[in-house]
Amino acid sequence: MTLTLVGLSHQGTPVAVRERAFVPLARAGELAASLAGEGEAVCLSTCNRTELYLVGDDAERRALDAFEGVSGMPGEELRAVVYRLTDEAAALHLFRVAAGLDSLVPGEGEILGQVRAAFEAGTTGPVLDRVFRQALHAGKKVRAETAIAESPASVSSAAGALAQQVFGRLDGCRVLLVGAGHVAELAARSLAARGAAIAYVANRSPQRAAELAGRFGGRGIDLARVREVLAEVDVVVSSTGSPGRVLAQPDVEAALSSRKGRPLFLIDLAVPRDLDPAIHDLDACYLYDMDDLESVVASSLAGRRREAARAEAIVAEEAERFREWQASREVVPAIASLRAWAEEVRAGELARVRGRLGLSESQEEAVESITAQIVNKLLHPPTVRLKEAAAGADGGGYAQAVRHLFDLDDAE
Amino acid sequence: MAEYLFGLAFLAYAGAAIAYAVDARRPGPAGRLATWGVRLGWVLQTALLVDQAARADAFPWATWAGSLNLFVWLVVSVFLVWGCRTRFRLLGLAVMPLAAALLVIARLGGGIGTGGRSGYSTTFLVVHVGLLSFAFAAFTLAAALSGLYLWQERRLKEHRPVGLLGRAPSLLTLETLTSRTIAVALPALTAGIVAGLVRLRNDGAPVDALMAVTLGTWAVYGSYLILRYEAGWHGRRAAYLALAGFALVVVARVGLQVGHFS
Known about the structure:
Chain A is α/β, with parallel strands linked by helices. Chain A has helices at about 15-20, 25-35, 60-70, 75-80, 85-100, 110-120, 125-145, 155-165, 180-195, 205-215, 225-230, 250-255, 290-355, 360-390, 395-405, and strands at about 5-10, 40-45, 50-55, 85, 175-180, 195-205, 220, 235-240, 265-270, 285-290. Helices cover about 60% and strands about 15% of the residues of chain A. The radius of gyration of chain A is 32 Å and the shape is elongated. The relative contact order of chain A is 0.09. The model of chain A has no long low-confidence stretch (mean pLDDT about 90). Chain B is an all-alpha fold. In chain B, helix 3 packs across helix 5 and helix 5 packs antiparallel against helix 8. The chains are: A alpha/beta, B mainly alpha.
C-alpha cells in the first residue's frame, strides 16, 4: 500500500494561499474520515502548512480534490503550489516536519504537538499508524539528542530564557513592566509563562497601566513610582516611548542596598533606550537592550542551524527504518502464501497415503512431526532470503518471483 | 582484584571526563554516556574500597595516598547527589578529569593497598580521616560550583550567554548549592578537627603546620557562612571567598605526607 503525501507549506506557498487551505483541527478529523474511505488518511494543518497523508487507491487525485474543496482554488492553481511525495520520501518529510526541521524556526517545539493532534484526529490503519508513531518518536529523539530546541528563537523568549539563567525557576520572581505597549506585553507573556508574577505595570497613562496589570494579576502604578518599587522586584522590562532615560545608574544603585545581593535583571526593549547602560556595570545587575537580545537570538538561531545537520541524520535513519518496514510488508504475504501452499501439499500427501500405511496413533504422530520438520527446513532458507531482500531495494521483485515460481495466489 | 577494580574505575572516570568534554561541544548522547560512566566508576571504586577494607587489618586509608583514594570516592559521591542532572554536565567537565587524575596519583602512591600500620586507633582514624576527607570533598565540589558561577556570571555580563542557555544551572541555583554544600561540610570539618586536637592534647604534641592550615580553612568557610547568611554576601564576592577556602583545602591535601598519621 502506497503512502501518499500532498501538501503545501511556507516553503514556496504565500500566506494568502496557505490561509485559504487551512483546516481547523476539529474539521481536520472529519476531512480525514471522509478522505480515508476504505483506506487511511490524516490531515495536518497549521499556520505554516496543510498536508494530507493518504493510503489507498487514487490517493493523489482525492487529495487534490479535497484541497480544491477546502481552499476554493481551481485545480490548476493548486497543482502549481502543492508538493506530492510517496512512500519513503513522504515519511522522511513527515519526520522532518515533526523534528521541526521544516519549520520557519528550526527545532520549534509546537509542531510536535500539532503532528500528534493531527494523528489522533485522523483515520489511521497500519501504514499511517506506523509512520506517525515513528514521526513522533523521531521528533522527540531529535530534541533529546541534539540542542536544536534549547535556545530561544525570539526576543521575548530570549528575555525569559535569560531571566531563567539568572534566577532558575521564575516562580516567585516579581516583574516590573515599565510601559504598557505591545512589546512589553509580549515579554510579560513570556515571563509569566515561565512562572514569573507581573507585580507592577508603570505607565504614563494610569488607565492603560491598570488594564495591562489587571490582565496579569498585577498593580498599575504611575511612572514616577518606578524607583520606589525597584527594590521589590527581580526583573524589570522597560519599553516606553520616552525620549530620555527612565532609570539612571544611581537609581538602581540606591535600590540594590536593600536587595541584599539578590540579582536584578533588566530588559530594555525601548528605542531610544530607557535604561542607563551603566546599570550593567553594577554588581549583580544584568542589563540587556534590544541589540543584546537580538544578538542572543541570532547566535541562538545559528546554533539551531548547526544542530539541524545532526537532526537530519536522525530523521534519515528513521526514514530508512520506515522503508525497511514497508519493504518487509511486501514480502510477508508472499512468505505466508508459500508456507500455506507447502502445508497444504504436506497435509494432502499425508492424507492420501495414511490409509495405505496402516500406522498406529503414535507412528502417525511421528510422521506428522517429521514431515512438518522437513517442510520447515526446506522453507527456512527462502524465508530468510526473502526477509533479507525486503530490507534491500528489490524485496518486491523477489516476492513476485516466489509467487510466479510456486504459482501462488496474492495473499494479503 | 584491587588492580582490576582500580583500572576499571579509572577507565570509567576518564571515559566520563572525555564524554563530558564531547558533550560540552556537542550536547547529546555523550552527556548520557558521561553520566553512566560516573555511576559505573563510582560502583567500581566502591567495590575497590570494600575490597581494601576486607583485606586490611586496620583503617586502610590512613596514608596520604589511601586518604586521596577515599577523597576521590567522596568527591564523586557528592557529585552524584545532583551532578548527573543534564544542567550540571558542565560541572562534570570540571570534576571528572580531576577525579580521574587524583585516582591515578592515589594508585601511584600505593593508595589501593591495605595501608601501613599506624600508631593511631582505627576509631580515631575513621573519625578524623573520614570526616576531614568528606569535608574536603564537599569543599572541592563547592569550589567547582563557584567556578562555574563565576564563569557563567562573566558570560552574562559579556552578553554571551547563548551556549549556556538551558545547559547550565542558574546563578541563584549555583549560589544556593555552594552555600548548602559548605553548610553541610563545615560541621564535618569541625568534628574532624576536634578529634585531631583532642588526640594532639592527649599525646602532648603541638599543633603542626597541616593542622594550622586546616584551622585556617575552617575559619574561611566559617566566615563564608556568616557573611552569606548574616551579612547578605552574594554573587561574585561569595564565590571568590569559597575559592579562597578551596585554595587552603589544596594546601592541606598537598601537605598530607607519609607519616602524618604514623
